[in-house]
């Protein structure tokens, strides 16, 4: 599914009318029916509904839904966030139809408007159609008062296209915003669903196509949300006659005396993702931990001092790098001065594709030049803030723009982790993940993801596609853990263990996720 920003969404509506002859008024009727369907799912039988409408097309959609609900026997009250004189033409037309149908409609200058706001806690459902995708300025006046009243009411809210007070393109709050139980958006998914406060305030969301022509919905935009069909088409098949050497040899450079488990988790994930061979290069205590937990792994002990690798350890890796087909570098290495020197020396001569993760990212942020080979950088928001010398708040304010900035700065594939992780690469649409759950917010998840992506790189999947497939697959495995173990409390090692089952689901059923 392609993702449309506000400008693209407006263009979609305009082109639908100009190129396909489908009037905006027809789309509005279909949008109203889609809103009513969402209402009926929450409240199948007749109930008490308050519909809040603004002056523009978003309010127009709400008025259509109010009229349909009224005709179907629901007890509907319409509360406007603007005065009658402010209504745009299409909205005015729907307002007149609602009034003719006998609907009770109040405007802010009516004497009863404030009293109706005080009474909305008695409603069963509220429909929020105050502000649409064009809202960019801080909310004020009657709209702000209405939003505050809705949030105080405790009544479940269905938001139309975007929760009022949320910026469509960034997901940031415009002073005040609706906290919706359900958001129904039209045509395509929007950026606010994946970032900022919008990510939380949208609640459970769905996309209704409402009759937009398919050729317009399938035109590429700047970003797309991944699905199992896209991932399944890229995951490599295992040939009947294949042997371990055909399935990639992953090098994992990880660990220190403080974090010996990172290498073990990454190696477990690499094997579970289908790597034919995995070699862990690390200090002796890290190698011992790997040997105790993963007897299948090969080991490359590295020289150390005070529990971390030293600069000369790079020569040991480079001597054998012709044996490897990809690398994961960074988990648990630490950022001691000797690690900086080690990575600087290693990166100068590294020729295999690599995942740069964790402490290696911090070293890059501190000035270590990336290898000349293809790389995938996998920062979480804190690491991204270091890469871009910005605050975490600035990174998270617009994650799509942040990824573009990082791609431009480092000229490599970037995977910004978090809810709805985003992959970016120059000249390619951004990829947005659609799997995963909050249970992944625990230690070691990034190590598992790094091992998976390194495995896909080792199997000749280009970095951009390896990162996209890896994050989707990783989230799908976490979803299995949430089903089988519980939504909170499963571990990164559980996710690694679920990878084969998740892969089987993705490949066998493109509709599973």
Structural features:
11-stranded mixed sheet, 2 domains, 513 residues, elongated, 20 helices, Rossmann fold, 7-stranded parallel sheet, UDP-N-acetylmuramoyl-L-alanine:D-glutamate ligase
Structural description of this entry:
By secondary structure, the chain is α/β, with parallel strands linked by helices. It folds into two domains: 2-220, Rossmann fold (3-Layer(aba) Sandwich); 228-508, UDP-N-acetylmuramoyl-L-alanine:D-glutamate ligase (3-Layer(aba) Sandwich), CATH 3.40.1190. Helices cover 43% and strands 15% of the residues. The chain has an eleven-stranded mixed β-sheet with strand order 1-9-20-19-18-17-16-15-10-11-12, sandwiched between helices. The longest helix has 22 residues, at 463-484. The two termini are 13 Å apart. The relative contact order is 0.09.
């Amino acid at each position: 599914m392609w993702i449309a920003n506000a400008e693209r969404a407006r263009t979609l509506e305009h082109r639908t009318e100009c190129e396909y002859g489908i009037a905006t008024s027809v789309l509005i009727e279909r949008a109203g029916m889609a809103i009513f369907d969402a209402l009926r799912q929450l409240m199948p039988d007749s109930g008490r509904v308050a519909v809040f409408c603004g002056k523009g097309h978003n309010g127009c959609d709400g008025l259509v839904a109010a009229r349909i609900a009224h005709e179907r026997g629901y007890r509907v009250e319409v509360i406007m966030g603007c005065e009658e004189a402010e209504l745009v033409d299409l909205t005015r037309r729907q307002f007149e139809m609602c009034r003719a149908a006998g609907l009770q409609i109040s405007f802010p200058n009516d004497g009863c408007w404030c009293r109706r706001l005080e009474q909305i806690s008695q409603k069963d459902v509220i429909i929020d159609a105050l502000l649409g995708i064009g809202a960019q300025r801080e909310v004020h006046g009657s709209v702000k008062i209405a939003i505050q009243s809705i949030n105080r009411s405790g009544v479940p809210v269905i938001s139309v296209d975007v929760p009022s007070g949320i910026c469509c393109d960034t997901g940031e709050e415009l002073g005040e915003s609706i906290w919706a139980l359900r958001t129904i958006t039209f045509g395509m998914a929007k950026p606010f669903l994946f970032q900022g406060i919008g990510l939380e305030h949208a609640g459970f969301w769905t996309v209704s196509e409402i009759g937009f022509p398919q050729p317009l919905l399938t035109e590429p935009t700047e970003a797309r949300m991944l699905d199992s069909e896209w991932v399944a088409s890229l995951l490599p098949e295992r040939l009947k006659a294949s042997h371990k050497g055909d399935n990639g040899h992953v090098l994992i450079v990880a660990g220190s005396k403080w974090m010996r488990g990172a290498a073990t988790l990454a190696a477990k994930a690499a094997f579970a993702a289908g790597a034919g061979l995995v070699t862990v290069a690390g200090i002796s205590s890290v190698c011992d931990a790997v040997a105790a937990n993963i007897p299948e792994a090969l080991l490359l002990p590295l020289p150390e001092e005070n529990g971390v690798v030293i600069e000369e350890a790079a020569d040991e890796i480079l001597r054998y790098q012709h044996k490897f087909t990809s690398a994961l570098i960074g988990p648990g290495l630490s950022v001691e001065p000797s690690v900086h020197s080690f990575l600087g020396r290693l990166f100068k001569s590294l020729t295999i594709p690599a995942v740069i993760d964790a402490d290696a990212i911090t070293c890059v942020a501190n000035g270590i030049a990336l290898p000349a080979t293809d790389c995938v950088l996998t920062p979480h928001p804190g690491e991204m803030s270091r890469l871009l010398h910005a605050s975490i708040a600035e990174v998270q304010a617009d994650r799509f723009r942040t990824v573009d900035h990082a791609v431009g700065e480092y000229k490599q594939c970037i995977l910004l982790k978090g809810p709805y992780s985003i992959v970016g690469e120059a000249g390619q649409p951004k990829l947005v993940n659609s799997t995963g759950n909050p249970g992944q917010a625990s230690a070691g998840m990034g190590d598992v993801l790094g091992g998976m992506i390194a495995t896909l790189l080792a199997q000749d999947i280009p970095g951009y596609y390896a990162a996209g497939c890896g994050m989707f697959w990783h989230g799908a495995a976490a979803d299995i853990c949430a089903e089988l173990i519980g939504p909170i409390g499963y571990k990164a090692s559980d996710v690694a263990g679920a990878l084969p089952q998740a892969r089987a689901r993705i490949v066998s059923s493109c509709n599973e996720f």
